[in-house]
TrEMBL record:
Keyword Transmembrane helix in record: yes
Transmembrane stretches, start-end: 18-42
Organism: Oncorhynchus mykiss
Domain of life: Eukaryota
GO molecular function list: cytokine activity; frizzled binding
Gene Ontology terms describing biological process: animal organ development; canonical Wnt signaling pathway; cell fate commitment; neuron differentiation; positive regulation of JNK cascade; tissue development
Pfam families on file: wnt (PF00110)
Main function: Ligand for members of the frizzled family of seven transmembrane receptors that functions in the canonical Wnt/beta-catenin signaling pathway. Required for normal fusion of the chorion and the allantois during placenta development. Required for central nervous system (CNS) angiogenesis and blood-brain barrier regulation.
Keyword hit for Disulfide bond: yes
One annotated Gene Ontology cellular component of this protein: extracellular space
SMART domains referenced in this protein's UniProt entry, alphabetically: WNT1 (SM00097)
Protein's name according to its UniProt entry: Protein Wnt
Length: 353
């Protein structure tokens, strides 16, 4: 058996049990994973909801891309919240694979929206690059002229509809309990995907002698995921609190309405929604998904949330001194080497008590 090395690390993140197989010395390639039988792989991924397992079995090639997409979402979450008390840590890597968060906070809302968007983004990119067997570029408008703008559709338009639909089928399938959090999670998943869809870009190329642009072809491309990260972060800060509404005699909540509004005002499609107020994330509390800030790096001079005052929640900080050494004043000597001095500087880092 053989494993594609660049992907084995990823597999190890997502599928700890597969990693055990790998570290015992055998290697397993993606292609042979497929050949080996999706059954084996899909049964080894912990925490898959039944419909996710079924989708894994019918599309084992896509499961890798889904994993990469979810990781992309989590990486972006960690980047966006790198200066926050909550740094995206407790919500874990396996949030798309069944395991549900037991909290209905704003932070959970962000996590769901960014992983759903991450999966849609990765699947769409994989389609464009020909990495998935059942999709490719979106050829729907190929060859048509845009009369008003005077250009022609060409190139490889990103098949965002496919990516979004795939994310919907896989990511949403983990919501099996019929409760208010399901409605919240599904709403936030959809909001993340919708925001991605709304930020697709048009890219064009001119044809003609020396860029004269006598004809122009255009296609749709994916935005950088970083851009989606910033937009979702903004949505996070404007997230709205909702409460479930039960339709008459049915026990199960059937939709969400804004909590502090009169009547039955619903959130908009791209609002992030939450059910419960967030903890302050100062102390460790697994029930709320808080890891606390003990041991976190803080910035002594910053007035923001990364400043020691706010980050350490008034507990104070430890100071660690160290000497930073680097090469400096480098001069080119004839011929041919570079001569440098060694510079050093005393420096300090601070961590929360
Ligand atoms: C497509 O496959 C190539 C080769 O395996 C890989 O380098 C690339 O990252 C993949 N692209 C996506 C979007 O998954
Ligand atoms: C988040 O904070 C915890 C401690 O509170 C730390 O262990 C972890 O490494 C941090 N994660 C990131 C991605 O910075
Ligand atoms: C600490 O915060 C100050 C003020 O916001 C900023 O200028 C400085 O670059 C920060 N230092 C580090 C190490 O991030």
């Amino acid at each position: 058996m053989l494993i594609v090395s660049s992907r084995s690390a990823l597999l190890s993140v997502y599928y700890p049990q597969i990693f055990l197989i790998l570290t015992s010395g055998s290697y397993l390639a993606l292609s042979s994973v497929v050949a080996l039988g999706a059954n084996i792989i899909c049964n080894k991924i912990p925490g898959l909801a039944p419909r996710q397992r079924a989708l894994c079995q019918s599309r084992p090639d896509a499961i890798i891309v889904i994993g990469e997409g979810a990781q992309q979402g989590i990486n972006e979450c960690q980047y966006q919240f790198r200066y926050g008390r909550w740094n995206c840590s407790a919500l874990g890597e396996r949030t798309v694979f069944g395991q549900e968060l037991r909290v209905g906070s704003r932070e959970a809302a962000f996590t769901y929206s960014i992983t759903a968007a991450g999966v849609a983004h990765s699947v769409t990119a994989a389609c464009s690059q020909g990495n998935l067997s059942q999709c490719g570029c979106d050829r729907e408008k190929q060859g048509y002229h845009d009369q008003e703008e005077g250009w022609k559709w060409g190139g490889c338009s990103a098949n965002i509809k496919y990516g979004v639909e795939f994310s919907r089928r896989f990511v949403d399938a983990r919501e099996i309990k019929k409760n208010a959090r399901r409605l919240m999670n599904l709403h936030n998943n959809e909001a993340g995907r919708k925001i991605l869809e709304e930020h697709m870009k048009l890219e064009c190329k001119c044809h003609g002698v020396s860029g004269s642009c006598t004809t122009k072809t255009c296609w749709i491309t994916l935005p950088k995921f970083r851009e989606i990260g910033y937009i979702l972060k903004e949505r996070y800060s404007e997230a709205v609190q909702v409460e479930p509404v039960r339709a008459s005699r049915l026990r199960q909540p059937s939709f969400l309405r804004l909590k502090e509004a009169r009547g039955y005002q619903k959130p908009t499609d791209t609002d992030l929604v939450y059910l419960e107020r967030s903890p302050n994330y100062c102390e460790e509390d697994m029930a709320t998904g808080s890891t606390g800030t003990r041991g976190r790096l803080c910035n002594y001079t910053s007035p923001h949330t990364d400043g020691c005052n706010l980050m350490c929640c008034g507990r104070g900080h430890n100071t660690h001194q160290y000497t930073r050494v680097w090469q400096c004043n480098c001069k080119f000597q004839w011929c041919c080497f570079v001569k440098c001095n060694t510079c050093s500087e005393k420096s300090e880092v601070f961590t929360c008590k």
